[in-house]
Specification:
single chain, mainly alpha, 2 domains, disordered C terminus
Length: 290
């Protein structure tokens, strides 16, 4: 590698006389099972599709859809930027780095300090220095885990009363998360990432999904699961006052699921819970349990 091709891997030694683990980077270079362009598409379209479907079916209001969309997009974009920042600064070699650096099968050559000296036939060696964490896994998990949290909240799988969803709703809610796990496994099968990269990428995406979901919604195990927590107290919230939520039955319905601490609320659940028919759609007595 020429001195002008500075990259994240320039700070790291791939191999030295005392390191016999070059086999970790000597796997074949394969095509991606999940193409790079599909990752942001899946990450964004999965939660957005659910939100728009819920809106079209009358399960949520336009206001709730707005908050959910902002939260979901913020989750995916923040995860992407965080992942790329870590990749560039860590500079871990991919499992197929040797196949990138010496694609003609030549004997690996190293600088005196242990850095790889790629030959002229090298295939974008800098891309081979962005293994940690897995971007495919982190991005897809951020969007798909958000979709899972959205479904868990709306179906009330963990509410623990008659309004909660059954096994079908639980399986349905976990399907998006299962998709992200499959994508992570494909990254190891394609030799684009080590298992540590995938585990950390999944953890990062899952944490971001939980964090951003909770900025907009009550926890999925809360009595108010599926309810927005933005503007929940109309008496002292400027946003809620502006939209008329403090006006009792005369104000516009925000489309929240009403599940109080004593188990009262919607009389039943379909694929998604019914919209509240009274007031602003939540019970203030149960807000302390969010």
């Amino acid at each position: 590698m020429s001195s002008s091709d500075k990259g994240p891997g320039d700070r790291h030694v791939l191999y030295s006389e005392s390191d016999n683990e070059i086999w970790k980077y000597s796997y074949p270079l394969r095509r991606n099972t999940v193409s790079p362009w599909m990752v942001p598409a899946i990450s964004i379209l999965a939660p957005l599709g659910l939100i728009f479907a819920a809106l079209l079916l009358g399960q949520i209001s336009i206001l709730e859809a707005h908050f959910a969309l902002v939260s979901a997009l913020g989750c995916v974009m923040t995860t992407g930027m965080t992942t790329n920042f870590i990749k560039v600064n860590v500079g871990r070699f991919r499992p197929h780095f040797v196949a990138r650096c010496w694609p003609d099968g030549g004997i690996p050559v190293f600088e005196p300090d242990g850095r790889p000296r790629c030959n002229d036939a090298a295939i974008n060696p800098l891309e081979g220095m962005k293994s940690f964490p897995s971007g495919h896994t982190a991005w897809s998990t951020s969007g798909l885990a958000y979709a899972t949290f959205f479904l868990l909240g709306k179906t009330g799988c963990f509410v623990g009363n008659s309004n909660g969803g059954g096994p079908f709703h639980l399986v349905l809610s976990l399907l998006p998360l299962g998709g992200s796990i499959w994508i992570g496994c494909s990254r190891m099968q394609d030799y684009w990432h080590h298992w540590e990269d995938v585990v950390v990428g999944f953890s990062l995406g899952f944490f971001m999904a939980w964090l951003f979901y909770r900025t907009a919604y009550a926890g999925v195990m809360s009595p108010n699961a599926g309810n927005l927590i933005v503007g929940l107290n109309p008496s002292n919230n400027m946003l809620a006052t502006a939209i008329g939520a403090g006006g009792g039955g005369g104000g516009p319905s925000l489309g929240f699921t009403s599940i109080s601490s004593n188990g009262s609320g919607n009389s039943g659940r379909g694929l998604l819970p019914r919209r509240s028919s009274t007031g602003n759609g939540f019970n203030n007595d149960s807000l302390n349990q969010v």
